User: Which sequence fits this backbone?
């Protein structure tokens, strides 16, 4: 029996030409996952197919991708960067509606809310496409019943890379009805950002910075308007491994630690490369 299924692209969204896009594909009815988990996606890349013209296509490159969709969605959505010299992401970006994408039947990953005991505040910290895993959580109604506040920090280079922003802004406005307050804080590292979102009361021009710098100088909590405290905060880190390592070090000095030996922690992390 095959370890993967063949699915079909049903739609694509271009967020930033040659850099950021999403792809939505059909879903196998037996494929189930928790928000924050990832799948292995397969593609036929290179001239492998040309040399076996009569054989049915079979994937030869596989990469991990977090599910963006809510867990009960009929289709599966993935959000991707295009790594210019990458083997996989440019081929994924070229896929057209109707073309096949293969998905491993096994799901992976521990960046899930099951890692935490309930707390007051859930902090979701992403750089770049690390946002993917959190979108699934935010789209899942179950997430909203567990915390009083959900805070999403999204660090990108430029404002043009703030994908899914309309959905996230709409969520800040709707969140009171969902059971928890939602605070969305985009942060740009290469240019200042004009911010007229929650938690900014007046539109503000925010200096360019990395999330780590803002945590160290206290501006992160100031911009969010909430203190990050180990007793009541649960925090996830996802995306660039250098960010994850640095942030994890800073948080450990403040009393945050992953769970171990069956004891739930207040920190969970996922590296994207
Ligand atoms: C658990 C897990 C979940 C992942 N989920 C996603 C996801 O939801 N969306 C996504 O775009 N990627 C995700 N990735 C990364 C993805 O698996 C591929 O690495 C990526 O698509 C690039 O593939 P590639 O063959 O083009 O380049 P690769 O040869 O795989 O990577 C080359 C280099 O590109 C850079 N790079 C790789 N991935 C990224 C990225 N996401 N953002 C910025 N720089 C990157 C790194 O410097 C890396 O060394 C995930 C990785 C892991 C381990
Ligand atoms: N967009 C571009 O201009 C550009 C340029 C070169 C390459 N690329 C390609 O784009 C891919 C990168 O994609 P990306 O921009 O989404 O991801 P990224 O490089 O991980 O950057 C996303 C965000 O993470 C920040 N960051 C990086 N290291 C950090 C650390 N140690 N601590 C805290 N924050 C940190 C970056 O800040 P900084 O901006 O300060 O690094 C940026 O704000 C690469 O694979 C490359 O192929 C893009």
Assistant:
């Amino acid at each position: 029996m095959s370890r993967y299924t063949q699915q079909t692209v049903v739609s694509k969204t271009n967020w930033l030409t040659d850099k950021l896009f999403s792809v939505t594909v059909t879903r196998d009815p037996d494929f189930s996952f928790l928000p924050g988990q990832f799948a292995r996606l397969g593609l036929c890349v290179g001239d492998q197919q040309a040399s076996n013209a009569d054989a049915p296509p079979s994937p030869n490159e596989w990469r991990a991708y977090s599910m963006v969709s809510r867990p009960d969605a009929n289709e599966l959505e993935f959000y991707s960067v295009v790594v210019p010299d990458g083997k996989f992401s440019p081929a994924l970006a070229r896929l057209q509606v109707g073309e096949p994408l293969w998905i491993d039947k096994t799901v992976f990953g521990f960046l899930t809310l099951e890692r935490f005991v309930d707390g007051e505040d859930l902090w979701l910290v992403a750089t770049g496409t690390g946002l993917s895993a959190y979108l699934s959580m935010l789209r899942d109604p179950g997430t909203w019943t567990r915390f009083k506040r959900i805070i999403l920090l999204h660090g990108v280079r430029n404002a043009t890379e703030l994908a899914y922003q309309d959905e996230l802004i709409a969520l800040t406005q709707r969140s009171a009805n969902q059971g928890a307050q939602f605070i969305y804080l985009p942060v740009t590292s290469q240019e200042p950002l004009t911010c007229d979102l929650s938690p900014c009361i007046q539109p503000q021009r925010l200096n360019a910075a990395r999330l780590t710098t803002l945590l160290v100088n206290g501006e992160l909590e100031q911009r969010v308007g909430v203190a990050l405290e180990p007793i009541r905060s649960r925090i996830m880190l996802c995306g660039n491994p250098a960010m994850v390592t640095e942030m994890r070090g800073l948080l450990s000095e403040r009393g945050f630690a992953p769970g171990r030996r069956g004891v739930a922690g207040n920190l969970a992390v996922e590296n994207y490369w």
Summary: The first helix runs from residue 48 to 51. The first strand starts at residue 4 and ends at 16.
